Amino acid sequence: MNYFILYVTFKNDLTEEMYVKGKSINYILEQIGRYTDGIISTSHTTISTHHAKSIYVRQIDLNHFPHLSKRDFRMINENQSYNYADLN
Question: In angstroms, rounded to a whole number, what is the distance separating the alpha carbons of residues 3 and 82?
Answer without folding.
Answer: 22
